[in-house]
Amino acid sequence: MRRVIPTGLDLTGTAKGVIHGRLPGAEGEWLGVANYEIGYADGRRNKLYVVDQLVPFWALTKR
Hints:
It is built from no helices and three strands. The protein has 63 residues and is mostly beta strands. The protein has one domain (1-63).
């Protein structure tokens, strides 16, 4: 059974954001430097806005 914490962040689906850089990893993988917003599980309108986060390129898509 899956437990959901209503005040927790909803990490399912996709998030809107902007990629503003990229960096190579030590093993040849690429990481995007991104700003994006994450919603809450209870559906509230305000979102958590995170800045300069490293995201693996495989997790990024074009709009």
